[in-house]
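Reviewers of the previous submission asked for a worked example of the structure-prediction workflow described in the proposal, so we include one complete record here. The input consisted solely of the amino acid sequence. No template or homolog information was supplied to the procedure at any stage.
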Amino acid sequence: MTRVATVCLLLLCVLAAPFAAAPAQAQADRCPKLVARSPFLAPRAPLTLPAAYPGAREVSLTYVGHSTFLIETAGGVSVVTDYNDYVRPATVPRVATMNRAHSTHYSLNPDPGIEHVLKGWREDREAARYDLEVGDLWIGNLPTNIRDWEGGTIRNGNSIFIFRAADLCIAHLGHLHHTLTQEDLGALGRIDVVLAPVDGSYTLDVDGMVEVLKALEAPVVIPMHYFNRGTLERFLQRFASSKYVIERSASPTLVLSRETLPLTPTVMVLPGN
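From that input alone, the workflow returned the following structure tokens.
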């Protein structure tokens, strides 16, 4: 009986193994889990700013201003974040993402040449969901809540958009108003580059944003949405006590690759606000 019981137990373990592995595999299939690594696992070269247009394993990121970035892949796909009528790049992108907070984060009249206009919210307050591939770019999102002008809550009024290209995951936090839960962090996984609003008032307060960034553990943080230099410096002073180093670029454009992610987690300040 003992031998039979042992055989049965082994058979049960073998049959159960695929089901036990399924959740881990499902997580691994998500963009960040699949392509990103912890910034503390292996040494990396210092962050560089190559002058050449990105190669097959590189992505170009340009800070246009406020919370708007132009992301360009080696395959020629372009996306503009928080596309609006006030701050726009000269080029018409193939993809535009928007958030609901106010009119500097969305447009009611986007350029008709844009192939994909992705709103980070739905009018019925249900969660907007995206799983979109455009050439060599993949786009997903995590819905979050925002405050209204009376202090109430607009459910799913913001989206953290995630862009994957060249084995890099770039997260744009949008108009984030609250810290992230463990469930949120699990859905996002590991992020290589995070574009973070650091105004400390209209979005999340400085301590809350620092908490979010430390939880994400991205090798590169790029501040945005800070209105003036004083606001930016207040965030940088608060963040200076963390394990991140602070670098400032004279160029609004950063060319990124997995090979050039920094050895030490870095806040990269690009010109503009």
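The chain is about 20% helix and 30% strand. We consider this example representative of the routine output the project will generate in years two and three.
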